[in-house]
Amino acid sequence: MTSKNPFMMIAGVVSGIFVLALVGVMVWMSKDTPRSGTFGTAFSLVNDQGKPVDQSIFKGNPSLVYFGYTHCPEVCPTTLYEVAGYLEELGAEGQSLKTYLFTVDPERDTPDIMKGYVTAFSDRITGVTGTPQEMTKVIAGWKAFARKQPNPSGGYSMSHTMDLFLIGADGRLKGLIPYGADPDEAIEKIRSALL
Amino acid sequence: MIRKHIGIFVALAATLSFGTARAHEFKVGEIEIGHPYSRAMLPVAKVGGGYLKITNAGPADRLVSASSDRAGSVEFHEMKMNGAIMEMRELQGGIVLPAKSTVELKPGGYHVMFMNVTKPFKEGEMVKATLVFEKAGPVDVEFAVGPIAGDKAHSEHGK
């Protein structure tokens, strides 16, 4: 049947190539989107000066982002202390880096408290807080985790992600530094991923 | 690699020097409390962790409560690392001390939580506290305040 009509054959081959190309484009796009679409989200919060900040803080310069809180006895101070060390070690090379502590406990961490906390480590770290709803959006957007754990004798603790997020100047996630990472390896990772 | 070794050496040296210079012990009944220590807190921080080693040479007991003039309240918490997530919870009913056992409160595990601290702990000072054991009773102890959080040598201390 088909051999009798060469035009049908050519049309079949052409449409076949077209479909393959289309599938290829679809696969390529679906592979590409997780990096730009799945991480990060629009938000409206305030920095430790009380000034409004949104997702645009991640554009135009690489950032180090930590999700922690000031009522944190161990991992947060340890991480921020180490981050301050990375910034010092990188010196002029890390000039473009912006560093943020997003509080997972915005109810207690006011801009003032955040300011006092982060500047105790380094004047290069900026605290970010705001409404719990907006903060929940950011935490979910970056696939981080935070949960309030009520204390039987009153008050609460926060369980949260310990990783330090490395975000490129394009606003995309470039890597993570786990808690307790070797400082030399961490600095090398920041250098290769962001600088 | 070399830097790693230096790091280990420094950690070891710091641990040893800290141990000889500041080691202190307290005793109540058959319970011995080894080297309670804390870390310097940030100027605005409201909570501080406390660490100590409890050696119970007697029958099963329980560390039921603690108090300190420096804190609004003192609790016992457990920190757990679940993958990349730090989980924190208050221990209800205190800390169980089986007969003839040693329980260590240390970074990354059980610890004392000084809540609502009004005057942040400073490096070099001693923070007075009272620990209460269910059977052995109360005992006054002092937490030696070490360097600010993040000091690797100190966090490795006692591990």
Overview of the molecule:
- The complex is a heterodimer of chains A (195) and B (159).
- Chain A is an alpha+beta fold and 195 residues long.
- Chain A has 2 domains: 2-37; 44-194, 3-Layer(aba) Sandwich (Glutaredoxin).
- Chain A is built from 5 helices and 9 strands, in the order H-E-E-E-H-E-H-E-H-E-E-E-E-H.
- Chain A has helices at residues 6-38, 75-90, 111-119, 132-141, 183-194; strands at residues 44-47, 52-54, 63-68, 98-103, 125-129, 146-150, 156-161, 164-167, 173-177.
- Chain A has a 7-stranded mixed β-sheet with strand order 2-1-5-4-3-8-9, sandwiched between helices. Chain A has a two-stranded antiparallel sheet with strand order 6-7.
- The radius of gyration of chain A is 23 Å and the shape is elongated.
- Chain A starts with 5 loop residues before the first helix and ends with a helix.
- The model of chain A has no long low-confidence stretch (mean pLDDT 90).
- The two termini of chain B are 22 Å apart.
- Chain B has one domain (24-151): Immunoglobulin-like, CATH 2.60.40.
- Chain B is 16% helix and 53% strand.
- In chain B, strands 1, 2, 3, 4, 5, 6, 7, 8, 9, 10 and 11 form an 11-stranded mixed β-sheet that branches.
- Chain B has 159 residues and is of the alpha+beta class.
- Chain B has helices spanning 2-22, 152-155, and strands spanning 25-28, 31-40, 48-56, 61-67, 71-82, 85-90, 95-97, 101-105, 110-117, 126-133, 137-148.
- The A-B interface holds A 70-75, 77-82, 113, 116-117, 120-121, 145, 149, 151-155, 157-163, 176, 178-179, 182, 184 and B 3-4, 39, 42-49, 73, 75, 77, 79, 81, 84-90, 92, 107-108, 111, 113, 115, 148-151, 155.
- Strand 7 (156-161) of chain A pairs antiparallel with strand 6 (85-90) of chain B, so a sheet runs across the interface.
